[in-house]
Fold each of these.
Amino acid sequence: MLILALTRAWGRIRGRGEILRGANFIGADGLMSDEDNDRRSDLDKLGERLAKARGEETKPEPALSPGASAGDGLRVAVEFVVSVLVGTGLGYAIGSVLGAPIIGLVLGMPFGFAAGLRTVYRGMTAGEKGQAPDGDD
Amino acid sequence: MGMTDTLLSYLFGLYAAGPMDQFIVKTIIPFSFGETDISFTNASFWMMIGVLTALGFFTLATKRLALIPGGMQSMGEMAYEFIANMVRDTLGDEGRVFFPFVFTLFTFIFLSNLLGLLPAIPGTPSAVHTFTPTSHIIATFTLALLSFGLVVVYGLFKHGLGFLSIFAPSGVPLWLMPLIVPIEIISFLSRPVSLAVRLFANMLAGHVVLKVFAGFVGTLLTAGGVLSVISIVPLFGIVAVFLLEFLVAFLQAFVFTILTCIYLKDALHPHH
């Protein structure tokens, strides 16, 4: 799987390589020595193999692996807990400044909880819409 | 049994080290600035190795640019394209100014994570043993504050007070604002913390699991009889976890950078 992915990435870079050649990325310092027939045929063979690998790659992929879901869950859990803690801490800090830290803490915690829910909700809905996987913006 | 213990500690100098010993910050060259301890520690040492590795790698990768990229060049190009695409996809063309920052951030975190997986060289002093800077929350929090600070500074610089509109989502009735605004502020402030905690917790947990499994191997091996034979099971466990850690090293660097990109989007376009 990993090998296939790497092959694909390498193929993509080769594809881009052609664009780079069009721009002035490669100097005329004699390093463009791929006119060599051996290397050409090697490249063709590689191209064929890549095309084959890519063809195999486009076969159905499992939509969600258990590992990915666990990672998502862990991410969301961290975000939620951190939000509650930040809300509570912020409430405590503001309360301390105003002279009533405990009242601040008690008021801050539900706000943190709400912020946590909001972050989690956003993260999850962004994923559903097929946007960036970690979109808790 | 006593003899086996001695033999093991002779063979593996690290045998006596507990699972948390790998996270102890040790001073290599002591420095102090007034009252503040600014010693060169094993953390600084491994961060430096990470930076030098990145410099060396990209110097080599861009040294002999060929039409058909060689191994080094294609790896360098892969890294460049990967981050360039990420920045372009999340931030658009305007986001190009952030590319150097995001690329540096990714390279540093990825190499810190990855180099921390190297085994320590037996016989070397423990101060130069492999150390993962990103397994310390102070390191990850500094990085997180850096990207958070960039979002705030750039946002305020570009949009002035209009940047504050990220705290007031559009379409919310006015009477709800006193409730929504504090929630949005807390949500915003928890970003750097969750960035830092996620990276640090993943690196810490992975390394602890590796060491705990390694401890199982040693303990079972010295227990004798059938138990010694079973010690192969946690050994395979180490291999599996180690491979997983490679994935985690990459994935956490990726998550950190893509979240930075997503947050930077707020600085570019605060209006939802």
Amino acid sequence: MANQNPQPDIYEINLSFANSSPQGTKLSSQVYTFQSSFEEVRVYAVMINIVNSEDDDASASMSDFQLTIEAGANKVPSNSFDIGAIATSREKTLAFPSPVVVGFQEPLTITGEWMGTTNLGAATVVKITLIAETAMIEGGY
Amino acid sequence: MANQYPQPEVYTTTHPFAASGTALGSTDSQTIYTNIAHNEQVLIYGVMVNFYEDAANGNGIGGVITLTGGANEDARFAISITAGANTVPTNPFDAQFIHRKTDKMFTFACPVLVNHRDVLQVNLERTSSTAVSKNMYAKVTLIAEIQKKE
């Protein structure tokens, strides 16, 4: 339950891919929003950092990952998308044209997948930050 | 059919290009399935471009191609987007400068509209007479949303 309406929320997810992970390796993580029944979460943007085991930026050499966001029963956006361009950009942030809406009791799941055509060259951590807010439901969606 | 209105959509297409087989004018087209209903439309606001080395080629492990020196030629491609029967924008536009930008994104002045049963395709065409130096592929990401028709 939020302390204010709307309330900014930032959800951080770290997906740790092992060295030599083959193409298609997927890692998922659940985000707990702690919202109440009359609140919704709106995810406005996603920030991506790809780092090595020493926390150095590794996006130049290992950025061929894609991301899936599941909000409730469905994927929103409805397809997985490349996050390499986000990680290698200076802002490292992609703002959606419209927010991803997460209702009460809807699981919010983040999945990263290695898409490179060979095994991953080193242990790599994909850090995903969802830039969101929690707000009271108005109208419906 | 969307889960919410409006619903953000991010469509990524992958376009492979071989070092030996990518002559001037070579094209690669990929179709995007929007899965929209008859009362919905897709609005595309921007496009991101990233060029990768083929991981099986040399030392690449899915790495992003850095545009310096001769590698500049590797990213000389033009993008065109087919929405329904026509290309929107009307003319192809350069992919290299988008890859080179710090935000790797190009925002349209107004959105590209894709209606129900309209074919949505992304086409890349080689615009340099120099063969690409390595096996590589381009990833083009369309930043869009699904909205109810008004």
